[in-house]
Design brief:
The structure holds 2 protein chains of 2 kinds.
Chain A: E1 15-20, H1 26-38, E2 43-48, H2 54-59, E3 69-73, E4 79-84, H3 87-99, H4 103-110, H5 113-120, H6 124-138, E5 155-159, H7 163-179, H8 184-197, E6 201-207, H9 211-226, E7 231-239, H10 246-254, H11 259-268, H12 275-303, E8 309-313, H13 321-335
Parallel strand pairs in A: 1-5, 1-6, 2-4, 2-5, 6-7, 7-8
Antiparallel strand pairs in A: 3-4
Chain B: H1 15-20, E1 26-30, H2 37-50, E2 54-59, H3 64-69, E3 80-81, E4 92-97, H4 100-111, H5 114-122, H6 124-132, H7 136-151, E5 161-165, H8 174-187, H9 189-195, H10 212-224, H11 226-258, E6 262-268, H12 272-287, E7 292-300, H13 310-322, H14 327-359, E8 365-369, H15 378-388
Parallel strand pairs in B: 1-5, 1-6, 2-4, 2-5, 6-7, 7-8
Antiparallel strand pairs in B: 3-4
The chains are: A alpha/beta, B alpha/beta.
Amino acid sequence: MTTRHTDPPWANARLHVVTGKGGTGKTTVASALALALASKPGRVLLSEVEGRQGISQTFDVPPLGTDETRVVRLSGGGEVVGLSVEPKAALLEYLQLFYKLGRAGRLLEKFGAIDFATTIAPGVRDVLLIGKIYEANRRRRDGRHKGDAAPVYDALVLDAPPTGRIGRFLSVNSEVADLARVGPIHSQAGAITRLLQSEQTVVHLVTLLEEMPVQETLEAVNELRSKGLRPGAIVVNMVRDPLLDDVALDQARAGRLHKASIRTQLADAGLQATTELVDGLLEEARDHAQRIDLEREQMGMLEATGLPIVQLPALPGGVDSGSVRELADLLVPAFVTPLVTPLEGVEP
Amino acid sequence: MSPGPVAKEAPALDVDALLADPETSIIVCCGAGGVGKTTTAAALGLRAAEAGRRVVVLTIDPARRLAQSLGLTELDNTPRPVTDIDGSAGGSLHAMMLDMKRTFDEVVLAHADPDKAEQILANPFYLAVSSSFAGTQEYMAMEKLGQLKAAAGTADAPWDLIVVDTPPSRSALDFLDAPNRLGSFLDGRFIRLLTAPAKAGGRAGLKVFGVGVQLVTSTMTKILGGQLLTDVQTFVNALDTMFGGFRERADETYRLLSEHGTAFLVVAAPERDALREASYFVDRLEADRMPLAGLVVNRIGRVEATGLTPSRALSVAEALEDGGGPKSATNAAALLRLHATLVRTAERQRELAQRFSRSHPGIPVVQVPALGRDVHDLDSLRQVGHALAGS
């Protein structure tokens, strides 16, 4: 399977990692993306790794546990399955799966080795969190992790740690591979690194058109690229259209909107157009013009990365389970339609 | 704009009184990522300094511009004086960025004898722990805070007020848990297992473990590989001597935080998620009996044309648009639509803040209007401080 150069970076992706600075709406975008991918139709696993219960809040369902639980079934047959990955459960499951530890597993727990591994040991926590996603990605419908059966999930969306930590989070396996130079942890870490660096994995970055989130996005793009990871789309969230046309914006910025005639218009339309009111409105227009300038400047910096940019509008009433579907519909053209390649049959 | 009828207003947070109170010696800013925590900490520090306090601001991971506005060009783990502030009231300002690896190294160098220190610093497991340890930032922020407090009042450390920004951790109160987590780890059986000599079958101290020891050790060797386990053991053994001091200081810092003289400020943005986290912080601080000074709600939308309701603005805008008038009519209509959007946004934000106050009555709140641009110099930092003081 080849990627045409016109295809987006996620043309062959199964694992969509979504990151963004705190407050940019990362969880909302990850949820909407999962819904969009499920509309193909398909079965999509949406995971979170920070125990925030953001998925349950977004979809208005009971808190997620360590079991994969369906959170949405779409009328077209697709479904989104939610999972809150917890390192301790992931470690015990991993040990059981690969070592069939039995009594030794319980002893490790009793001696505090599990706590040590999941809270104290460097990087292990992140390895386990990603390891669980790796396992879910490989799992087949017959429960095995190899063979010809179709994969359980058609796509996976990971609500990942924020931009400031994403590079380290995704490269933790190569660090661990350095630390444990031989042995099973070493080989497991190597296999995960290969998945994350393959075309099957893509990292989308959610941002607002504000200075700090954009700065962090640009830094994250560079970091991901330098670590051999694949940045996908930059999702610009909460975009507001300018309310004034460009000419009026120019005038507003320069303080040259014609005060007298605006005042006349307002008065003619029946408003009591006091000086304070008109001055206030003009001041608001100037703030607005400056904000639009800032946003355009930020947008230019994002465009310079060469990555596809997907815009989502600000929702006037904030986000709820209904509005996530609205956002999902807006993501479908960018993330679903160009995917002419069937997801089934992609080798894990 | 009028906030509308509210059953009970939250008490106003008097930032200036807090900063002026000579009893206030530590201010901790906590909150979710991306809410303006670091900016708030820096603005408070500057305002206190210009009001005559001798201040040090400890930032964890400041945006580059904010760091530059404080004159911090490199991360060197040492408080640097911020020049260009107005010192006419007799105050001073120092600022620093936390370097967690260097702080950890300093702890090792200060508390282990030279041979052992060298051994620790070169251990591969230590290198990993000190730079990417889940929670290292929290431990080291606490450690640094303890150091700054201990040095306070000396010639090189003239401060009497420490303003701390907290790490953008998974749970922003992880630093409160750091001492306990460290403590239970150090007292745990696992550490004793790791620090025990390899052939410890006969040692009295290990008898409590029974026959499980062999099984656990062999399982760990199987999973981790012998080399990693040896690195871990060497590391833990080497650290063993300094563990006591480590834990004592962490406990001491925790005590410091719970004392009168410390003030926690929870910082939030006027959004559902950020305020939900703020609720969680407030509950957690109260449960731990930490001295909570109040809530800062940052970036409330600004409205300049007061007194014009959104619905009135929109109906007039519609009339103007239907009238097919000149360009000035189109512009006037656009201004009114803009105004309606601004008022509605600000109203929704205030409603979110009020919802917080209804479930946490009695917690003082200050709402800080949005700035056009991010902070990039002392002047804009001064403006934030001004807004924090509610003036």
